[in-house]
Write a structure and sequence with these properties.
- This protein has helices spanning 11-15, 18-24, 108-117, 119-145, 148-161, 172-179, 183-195, 211-217, 221-233, and strands at 29-33, 38-40, 48-54, 57-62, 68-74, 94-97, 101-107, 167-169, 199-202, 205-208.
- With 235 residues, it is an alpha+beta fold.
- The protein folds into 2 domains: 11-142, Jelly Rolls; 147-218, Orthogonal Bundle (Arc Repressor Mutant, subunit A), CATH 1.10.10.
Length: 235
């Protein structure tokens, strides 16, 4: 079977064999979501699965007092809500759009129908879950052991990998949640990186100026997480 023209640059969709891809395509809807769009909160039923084309979705762990910190970042290498293809699921975290997002969306029950017929999709779902787990446990160690500056560099690089431009539009509030710090700390770190010539920072916008410099300053976790995805998903 000739493979249809890809709808996106999503690595999971592109990894499906042609006959399995053809089962998914009729049920995909193309969506564009604005920054800040809430997809799920903890306990919400996962009714749709999102395959990003370009952009970033963050999975946030929430505390009773309202504090939050990012556990994983998902872009064109993966999907959000994919385990709902196996059986009905409730979200364990908050899933929120962090940058303007283009994605393919499919109803979870439709994807389950494909999952039942497609060994390739079942294998991808298993490997994606393992990659996401590796991402989350590395983030736990990173948040506990590494400096805010190194973690900020890691997050900027992680985001930059998943978007098609060098400008990341993010509020101080979002950045503070990503890093689990106060807004004043975000401002101080951003100014320090700007003084080093690595970024340009203005209210709500970060321009990546020197990617190699950010890579030199980030922690080992950036490379470890990238290697998880390359090993398990080839992305």
């Amino acid at each position: 079977m000739q493979r249809p023209v890809p709808l996106s640059q999503n690595s999971l969709l592109d990894a499906l064999p042609a006959q399995d891809y053809a089962l998914v395509v009729p049920h995909l809807a193309q969506v564009e979501l604005e920054r800040g769009r809430l997809l799920y909160d903890p306990g919400d039923p996962i009714e749709h699965v999102y395959f990003p084309h370009d952009g970033v979705i963050s999975l946030m762990t929430l505390m009773e007092n309202g504090a939050a910190i990012e556990s994983s970042t998902i872009g064109p290498e993966g999907a959000v809500g994919l385990m709902a293809a196996v059986s009905p699921r409730q979200s364990l975290s908050r899933a929120i759009v962090q940058t303007p997002l283009r994605a393919a969306r499919i109803a979870a029950d439709r994807l389950h129908e494909v999952w039942e017929k497609s060994p390739a999709l079942r294998d991808l779902a298993d490997r994606h879950t393992e990659a996401l787990y590796g991402h989350a446990i590395q983030s736990v160690a990173c948040n506990a052991l590494h400096s805010v500056e190194a973690r900020f560099c890691r997050w900027l690089l992680t985001c930059h990998d998943r978007i098609s431009i060098d400008t990341v539009a993010l509020t101080q509030e979002f950045l503070a949640d990503m890093l689990g710090v106060q807004r004043t700390t975000v401002t101080a770190v951003a100014r320090s990186l700007q003084d080093k010539g690595l970024i340009r920072y203005r209210r709500g916008v970060v321009d990546i100026v020197d990617r190699a410099g950010l890579q030199a300053m980030t922690c080992e976790c950036y490379g470890v997480i990238r290697n998880h995805y390359r090993r398990l998903l080839g992305s």
